[in-house]
Design goal:
The complex is a heterotetramer, with 2 copies of chain A (283 residues), 1 copy of chain B (228 residues) and 1 copy of chain C (241 residues).
Chain A lengths: L2 E9 L5 E10 L4 E5 L6 H8 L7 E6 L2 E2 L5 H7 E4 L3 H4 L5 H11 L4 H15 L14 H13 L5 E5 L7 H16 L4 E6 L5 H4 L2 E6 L2 E6 L1 H5 L2 H6 L6 H11 L12 H13 L2 H5 L1
Parallel strand pairs in A: 3-8, 3-9, 6-7, 7-8
Antiparallel strand pairs in A: 1-2, 1-4, 4-5, 9-10
Chain B lengths: L9 H28 L3 H17 L2 E3 L4 E3 L4 H8 L1 H19 L7 H25 L4 H27 L8 H37 L1 H7 L11
Antiparallel strand pairs in B: 1-2
Helix pairs in contact in B: 1-4, 1-5, 2-3, 2-4, 3-4, 3-5, 3-6, 4-5, 5-6, 6-7, 7-8
Chain C lengths: L2 H10 L5 H4 L2 H17 L4 H16 L4 H25 L4 E7 L2 E6 H27 L2 H10 L4 H30 L9 H34 L17
The chains are: A alpha/beta (283), B mainly alpha (228), C mainly alpha (241).
The structure holds adenosine-5'-triphosphate (ATP) (2 copies) and magnesium ion (2 copies).
């Protein structure tokens, strides 16, 4: 387990109970998605597990060690946090300076700093923007630059708060593919928050549903979305193709062995119904 | 009100640099001390500085001349972050204005920092502090601070021009001073009133909507004003 | 709004040409030197030469006339007022006297010389700064200032201000437009409208300030997760070819 | 036509050509969606047609009269503009004060003002929040309050910039249903921008695709999404069920007469394939 969270509670100073006993375990190397409606506590939870907010209660272990035993530097060499609004995160005047901020604070030699900056920008696909002032970037480019700033610290886990919010479909695909690449090729564990349900089955190994400061459900996308009522009760919905399959199963009595979550799965399900070889599909 | 490059003779430009730097040094020292204790202070100042700079660029209508002008912003900055830190923010704002907006100038930076930053901050803060001591409400005290702060900037700029403009005061310093005073009067007097109004309005609004900010910045001590 | 033309200068400084590629420290030194010379030395020749040089530089990088006029005109107009004041009111040997509308105006030689000096100084010093800002991005200037031993705190705040001015500018303009769309800025030539406009302005100022304050919290958090230790511009990232 | 736009161009002062000759016509009473990727000029276009930015070139007619002939007051009695971020738009300390801001500026008598405030809050479903301070509202409530502020001006057209951005699925549904109600019940023309493709077929009477400052396509959702290549070329995608149907048609040679855009249409298409009565469906 790269991260274990046990009974974490957090209350804001105005009395808002944002987290009321959150438990979760995240194995290393996985792509994990935290799904939750507005105000469910996703951002608060991320700030707690990155040490930015101190929980009143509960234990957090990173790589088996309690969070509070880490020095700041040790912690942020392991965990990177990408904020929702890239403007919060890009405070240096140019992209290169911003990405260099972390490595410089790690007191790396200048050569290593510039290597890391170039590598990180290369990974997110914007090496040519190195000397651009941040305010000339598009929103999608800012998102990438923010991720590069975190990558330059070479963390083992990257935590992203709604990385696709505000992006068009093309931009969403690009960012998600970038995250998959970081996860599969570089072996970085990814933990991201979102309320875009359709993204989940395409990318997640494991998902958690957070609702009103509690984890409602945990498991693979198939496991979680099979509990339709709970998902809907949490202001969320099923992926659109799952919704279609549900209607076909319930009203039209098609054979739907397992709710398809992606277009590929739905295609298989429909074909087996059209061709009548339901048994072959069910297996 | 900024003095442009070329308006002051060399020796006065240098002299005002000297005068301003004493005060700014105190501000720089304060910030450095504070950052060592509260690391969040520097990003906070960066953002506050950007906000004050934005505020000083806002056009506000001046009915007399039928044009719009800009508030100095230093009185309100002094109320919010204290007079000496506000001086450092004014250095930043004036430097940025000189460098990419061509407002003011480099040789007159010292003079402008002195009038806008030092005089404006000290007057604004002093008036606000006195007003609060005298039991005035937050809004009224801020109004007076804005108005008098702006007036003080106007007076000191006129004085600097009278002193430092080549050959102007050879006959009579007083006459030159009065000439500049009269020259800027039509815009500056209403502007001072306006700066007071917007300063008062701004502080009142913050007290109403986000009293916690004023408390954290130490502008108000307890929850008297602006309870929701 | 007028300020758009200011932001144009920033955009212009991002272009690639011989002058933008030059080290900012050299440009700053040259500008300071030129400014000192213009302000400290008497005579008309030097300011004129410098103005000619800066003008040709601006021509060479093809500065739009809009920028040049937008930035030169206000100080030049002010300078012209001063020029008139000096020529008419400075005592000395009389050169000329005019009768305008029954008023006797006398022009004095010393005043004329002084007025012209001031006017030329203003024109050439503004053009020097204009050249500097048209060819140097602000972040480069910031790092040059560090090199010139300007206190680090000032430069750090300057760079943060520069960075977030654009963010706050956009936010502030949106708020202003939202106010305008619900008639928050009526005609201020009548007292009621004027009061409303002043009210809206102070609300706008407060909202931008509150936004800035809240953003500072997030920015600080973002800095912390990247090992912030009190220095914002720890070290400049070197340009790589 | 409640709005006619002819050859509108707009260039920002830094030289960015945001609109390069936009043409469109919007009939009254319709629900119109402007679909476009990031940076395509949606926000710029809305600012131009609401008189916030002056186009360099082109004509804009509102209710048959040129835009520039309207006084501010006349214009904003007709057009309401809801910004993307409700925080930009809520400037008074409490919800009630904020909604009253417009009517007060219209110099309506106090009775009429408070009637309008109550009606507007009723319409968006938050009458109980009238005395709440704005910053205690959740994001979804802020969106509603912002819409109420515009409704209180009683405009004939409401223009909304990405009204669903940042909302969870439950919030998206609520806001869209609110807009449909305003459109169908109150007869207000709706023009909204989005890049959420799946929303379009559910709600829009008519859509426009904006790309790089040009209108690429215009028409009903069915007409527009039948031009798949153009849609994809504009950094957009098909609705998920349409994508599924496309794969079933092309690779698996199912009978797909017209690309289904909604779950209901897809259901019909699949059923007719399963039951083999393709002709009945095709008709
Ligand atoms: N600084 C704060 N002070 C007080 N309450 C807060 C603060 N920040 C968040 N909250 C409250 O805590 C709860 C959880 O908020 P949080 O931002 O963690 O939710 P979220 O899941 O990230 O929502 P979203 O999807 O809208 O980003 C909400 O009820 C919110 O109103
Ligand atoms: N104030 C500005 N100054 C300069 N360029 C701008 C400004 N605002 C927008 N732009 C540019 O104009 C183009 C259109 O921007 P606009 O904001 O209208 O797009 P949009 O379709 O609303 O995008 P999004 O979906 O991201 O909101 C973009 O290239 C953008 O970078
Ligand atoms: Mg959040
Ligand atoms: Mg937009």
């Amino acid at each position: 387990m790269i991260m274990e969270v046990h009974q974490v509670q957090y209350t804001y100073s105005d009395g808002t109970k944002a987290l009321e006993g959150v438990n979760l375990q995240i194995p290393g190397g996985q792509f994990t998605i935290l799904l939750g409606p507005n105000g469910s506590g996703k951002t608060t939870f991320f700030k707690v597990i990155t040490g930015l907010l101190k929980p009143e209660q509960g234990d957090i272990n990173i790589e088996g060690r309690p969070l509070q035993e880490f020095s700041r530097e040790e912690l942020y060499r392991r965990i990177g946090f990408v904020f929702q609004d890239p403007n919060d995160q890009l405070f240096a005047p140019t992209v290169g300076d911003d990405v260099a901020f972390g490595p410089v604070n790690l007191k790396l030699p200048p050569d290593e700093v510039s290597k890391r900056v170039r590598d990180a920008l290369e990974m997110v696909g914007i090496p040519h923007l190195i000397n651009k002032p941040v305010h000339y970037l598009s929103y999608g480019q800012k998102k990438r630059a923010a991720i590069a700033g975190v990558l330059a610290m070479k963390p083992g886990i990257i935590i992203l708060d709604e990385p696709t919010a505000g992006l068009d479909p093309g931009g969403v695909r690009e960012i998600m593919q970038l995250l998959v690449k970081l996860n599969k090729k570089e072996g970085i564990s990814i933990l991201m928050a979102t309320h875009d349900v359709d993204l989940v089955p395409l990318y997640a190994d494991r998902i958690f549903i957070l609702h009103m400061g509690h984890i409602l459900l945990a498991g693979t996308p198939a496991e979680v979305f099979s509990r339709k009522e709970i998902v809907r009760g949490a202001q969320l919905r099923l992926p659109r193709v799952a919704h279609l399959a549900e209607i076909l199963a319930n009203r039209d009595h098609l054979a739907v062995a397992e709710l398809p979550l992606t277009i590929g799965e739905a295609r298989k399900m429909i074909l087996s119904n059209v061709n009548g070889d339901v048994d072959a599909y069910g297996s | 009100m900024h003095i442009q490059d070329g308006f002051l003779v060399g020796k006065w430009a240098v002299a005002w640099y000297g005068a301003a730097s004493v005060f700014v040094a105190k501000g720089v020292y304060d910030i450095t001390q504070r950052t060592q204790k509260v690391m969040a202070y520097k990003p906070l100042l960066g953002l506050v500085s950007a906000a004050v700079f934005f505020i000083s660029l806002l056009p506000i209508p001046v009915p007399v001349t039928g044009t719009s002008s800009h508030p100095a912003g230093t009185p309100v900055a002094a109320i919010l972050v204290g007079p000496f830190v506000s001086m450092v923010l004014s250095v930043v704002a004036l430097l940025l204005q000189a460098l990419f907006f061509a407002h003011g100038g480099l040789s007159t930076l010292g003079a402008n920092v002195f009038s806008m930053g030092v005089v404006g901050s000290l007057t604004g803060f002093g008036v606000f502090w006195l007003g609060r001591k005298a039991g005035l409400s937050l809004g009224i005290a801020a109004f007076l601070a804005g108005a008098f702060g702006d007036l003080a900037v106007y007076l000191s700029t006129s004085f600097q021009l009278a002193l430092g403009m080549p050959g102007v005061h050879e006959q009579s310093l007083l006459r030159a001073f009065l000439t500049f005073l009269a020259l800027f009067m039509p815009t500056q007097l209403p502007l001072a009133l306006l700066e007071g109004l917007v300063t008062g309005g701004m502080v009142t609004y913050i007290a109403k909507v986000r009293p916690d900010i004023l408390r954290k910045l130490g502008v108000v001590e307890d929850v008297e004003e602006g309870k929701n | 709004m007028v300020k758009d033309s200011y932001l144009m200068v920033d955009a212009f400084a991002q272009r690639d040409n011989v002058f933008t590629r030059m080290d900012a420290r050299i440009k700053v030194s040259l500008s300071v030197l030129a400014l000192t010379a213009v302000i400290a030395l008497p005579g008309f020749i030097l300011p004129l030469i410098i103005f000619a040089l800066t003008s040709s530089l601006m021509l060479a990088v093809r500065t739009p006339l809009k920028i040049v006029l937008g930035r030169m005109l206000p100080p030049v107009i002010l300078g012209f007022v001063v020029f008139l004041l000096m020529t008419f009111f400075h005592q000395g040997s009389q050169v000329l006297s005019l009768k305008v509308l029954g008023l006797e105006l006398e022009i004095y030689r010393e005043g004329l010389v002084l007025g012209t000096t001031v006017l030329l100084r203003i024109i050439s010093s503004v053009s020097i700064l204009l050249c500097l800002s048209l060819t140097t991005p602000v972040h480069e200037l910031g790092y040059a200032l560090l090199w010139f031993r300007i206190p680090r705190v000032i430069v750090e705040i300057l760079l943060l201000t520069y960075r977030y001015l654009f963010v706050l500018w956009d936010e502030g303009m949106r708020i202003r437009q939202a106010q305008a769309m619900r008639l928050g800025y009526p005609d201020w030539r009548n007292p009621a409208g004027w009061k409303k406009a002043v009210n809206s302005t102070s609300t706008l100022m407060a909202m931008v300030f509150i936004r800035a304050y809240d953003r500072a919290e997030n920015t600080f958090a973002a800095m912390q997760t990247r090992g912030y230790n009190g220095e914002v511009t720890g070290q400049r990232f070197k340009k790589t070819a």
